[in-house]
Each structure stands twice: as C-alpha cells, then as structure tokens.
Amino acid sequence: MRQWAGAFNARDLAGTPVGDAVIRRGVLFRSGKPEAWLPQGWLEAAADGVRRVIDLRDPRELREPINGADAAGVRYESTPIEDPDNAEFRELMVPYLMHTNQYRDYLRLFGDRVAAAVARVANAGPGTVVCCSAGRDRTGLVTGLLLRALGASVSTLLAADEFASRTINERHKVSNHPYESFRPEPALSEWVASRAAALEQFYGELDVETFLRAHGVTVEPAREWLLDE
Questions:
Q1: Any bridge partners for residue 28, and if so which?
Q2: Among candidate residues 135, 125, 121, 122, the one with its CA nearest the CA of residue 27
Q3: Cα 133 to Cα 56: distance, rounded to the nearest angstrom
Q4: Which stretches of the chain are DSSP H helices?
Q5: The domain 11-218: what is its CATH number?
Q6: How far apart are the first and last CA of the chain?
Q7: pLDDT digits over 34-64, tens only?
Q8: Cβ atoms of 53 and 121 closer than 8 Å
Q9: C or N: which end of the chain has fewer Cβ atoms within 10 Å?
Q10: For the chain, which residues make up each domain, given as ranges?
Q11: pTM above the 0.85 mark?
Q12: 84 pairs with which residues across the strands?
C-alpha cells in the first residue's frame, strides 16, 4: 500500500492475525482525519480499494471540508460515537479521549454509540476506512472491539495501539497540535507502556462479546469479507 497524499496514521490492516485467520488485503484500513487527505490522496486510496470512510468524530470537529472523496468515488460517512456536550464526558476527558485508561468510562458513557459503530464496520464490506482525528483512540477502540470479538488476541491489539501511538507521535514533530506535542525517548516509551498496561486491563475486564450482545450487535457478517480463513 502506498502512502496516500496528505494522509497520516493511515494503513491497511492486512495480515493482522485474528484467531486462526488474518485480515485480507485491501478490505479494512484505519487513518487519521480524512480532511487532511489531498485530492490525489483520495484517488490513491480508491486505487488501493477504499470505497467508504467511516468517521467516528462529532461533525463539529471538522474544521475543513472533505475535499476529493466524491471525485474519487469514495463514500464519506459520519458515525459519531460520543456526545461532546455530555457533562461527565467533559469533566473526565477534556479535551478529548486521549488514553486507554479512559476507555472503560468512555464505554459507560457512550456504549450504545460505540457498539453501533462496531456494527456499522462489521456490516460495511470491503474497502472500509475507520478514522477519527489522530487515528489512535476512537479508531483503536472501535476496530479493537471488532477484532477482539472476532478472536484477535490482546497482544495483537496492544501492538496496534503502539504502532498508532508512535506514528502519531512522529507527526507531532511537524504539526502544531493544541494539546499534544512530540515525546522524545524515554518519555515516549513510558507513555506507550502506560497505554499498553491500561489497554490490557481494559480487555481483561471486558467480555467484548457480552458487551456487544447487550447492544444487539453481532460481528459475524465481517468474517465473510474481512478474514482469510
């Protein structure tokens, strides 16, 4: 897969182990915010098999237009998984969800929305990109729940989180972010380790299938298009 022009923290999840299977090439991707993609990037994404982008952010987070999706034949879908006006969310997670140690409270507040997003991805079909702002926490939570329900190991999800966290950290070298900045070593490794410990605890305490079932969600439709079994 090429690097789509303008995209960051974007990758094909091909080859990710899920139980006794792996994710097929060109069917499921994750990314940072798509308004950063240049028109050429949309064309490149389409050439790599992208057919739709599922954006997990509240629409108010978009400060720039999505430029190039229509011309590339890619469908952009807004599927917000949080309510930024929720008072408890604002108290606990201002300015936003930014660490795996917040995932449990996030599900408590927005479990219905998160489960609905997992269902949307599971039923989307090949060529799906899941994204948020950084492509790290909201994207990692939704894709992680889907893959865990399908049989992915916790170690696989920890590796995905580390990759996303280190990749977005590199972007902070050249971007002016209002709340985060580049972490040099050893601060970066300490931060990654803290995320891993919290994420391992999160999945150790959460029965993902029970959570999804409680919200009327099954991920079985994804097996047919997502996995090479």
A1: 128
A2: 125
A3: 9
A4: 39-47, 69-72, 87-93, 103-122, 137-150, 154-171, 187-205, 208-214, 221-226
A5: 3.90.190.10
A6: 22
A7: 999 999 999 999 999 999 999 999 999 998 9
A8: no
A9: C
A10: 11-218
A11: yes
A12: none
